[in-house]
Design brief:
11 helices; binds S-adenosylmethionine; binds iron/sulfur cluster
Length: about 350
């Protein structure tokens, strides 16, 4: 039997839940399925990126195998990301394979974060395979600014993708990176746009990850300040939603919509962190803001059985750092040298 034929690994299914050295239970896996993307957002990538050679990237079979071992270890939620997950060749085959864990109840949720450029083509299939929600990144409603921020992207294409996702019955959440110079003034309009269409929206503070061409410090916008400004004319009601991540949510009484704030730079959320990340090269990162890494690809390609893979995963998770160390005041030098597109946002 090839690993790709394997159902959830029986051996791993019996293994105790994945718990780190500080007693935090890991139930959420983010998988970056590719480092490639059809956009080049200024805060995420350099204009001329060198992408990884194919041999370094896990095959669809390898991604399925590792993710499935995590499911066997108690992971209940998987988010596919990238790079742009929908540009990975064969990604729908991977999603179809992983959806077996939804069908048998081992996985509660399989979802993805996408830039939306290919959503119009994939939305119906995603819904058919059991995907219930998608996060779509859109930082502005201005087509020219969108084109500049993404270095060439089409806002109309992304909005058509969002509409297609909604029409296919997927719940959509908009992700918008808050940028002091570029979109600060239109944040209320973005929120209104999303809420009018029944979508939630989450604002994200810029994080110093990977070398990009711009200086990110002058674009840093504190979401505490944004929240205070919004609260001067809207009623923001705290929602007791805890996702185990850096997002905090409110309901905007005037629009009836949900608004999230992801503030990794200013908010300490690490004590309740439930997540780990797998890069497209098979590296396990247990903290977005630290350089800790476990090379699962080496273990996989050395021919390890599930027990070997489980031992490597458990070892990596055991030493999950207590917390991150992001500091924007380090100037434009990134705190973590890998790009968000490699780690998966
Ligand atoms: N390509 C997909 C997308 O754009 O949604 C998925 C990958 S992208 C790396 C995931 C999220 O990370 C996006 O919402 C993006 O805006 C965000 N992101 C990328 N670089 C970032 C940075 N330096 N700081 C904060 N957020 C960032
Ligand atoms: Fe691509 Fe997403 Fe990074 Fe933009 S944020 S360059 S869409 S991976």
């Amino acid at each position: 039997m090839t690993p790709y034929d394997a159902s959830p690994p029986a051996q791993s299914r019996q293994t105790a839940a994945l718990t780190d050295g500080l007693g935090r239970k890991v139930t959420y896996l983010r998988v970056s399925v590719t480092d490639r993307c059809d956009l080049r957002c200024v805060y995420c990538m350099a204009e001329h990126m060198t992408f990884l050679p194919k041999a370094e990237v896990l095959s669809l079979e390898e991604l399925d195998r590792v993710a499935s071992v995590f499911v066997g270890l108690g992971v209940r939620k998987i988010r596919l990301t990238g790079g742009e997950p929908l540009v990975r060749k064969g990604v729908m085959t991977l999603i179809e394979r992983l959806s077996r864990h939804l069908k048998n109840g081992a996985l509660e949720e399989l979802t993805l974060t996408t830039n939306g450029t290919r959503l119009a083509a994939f939305a119906t299939d995603l819904a058919r395979l059991g995907i219930r929600r998608v996060n779509v990144s859109m930082d502005t409603l201005d087509p020219d600014l969108f084109k500049r921020l993404t270095r060439g992207g089409s806002l109309a294409q992304v909005q058509a993708g969002i509409a297609a996702a909604a029409a296919a019955g997927l719940k959509v959440k908009i992700n918008a990176v808050a940028l002091a110079r570029d979109n600060a003034a239109e944040i209320p309009e973005l929120i209104r746009w999303a809420h009018e269409r029944g979508h939630g929206i989450t604002l994200i503070e810029t994080m110093p990850m990977g070398e990009v061409d711009e200086d990110r410090t002058d674009q840093f916008l504190s979401l505490a300040a944004v929240r205070a400004e919004l609260a001067s004319y809207w009623t923001l009601k705290d929602l007791p939603l805890n996702t185990g991540g850096p997002a905090r949510y409110v309901e905007v009484a005037e629009t009836g919509g949900k608004l999230g704030f992801i503030t990794p730079m200013t908010h300490n959320f690490c004590e309740g962190c439930n997540r780990v990340r797998l890069t497209c090269t098979g590296t396990l990162h247990t903290c977005l803001g630290q350089e800790d890494a476990t090379d699962l690809r080496a273990v996989l390609r050395a021919g390890a059985d599930d027990a070997g893979l489980i031992a490597a995963i458990a070892g990596g998770v055991d030493s999950k750092p207590k917390g991150h160390d992001f500091r924007i005041d380090r100037g434009s030098a990134p705190s973590v040298s890998r790009h968000m597109s490699t780690t998966g946002g």
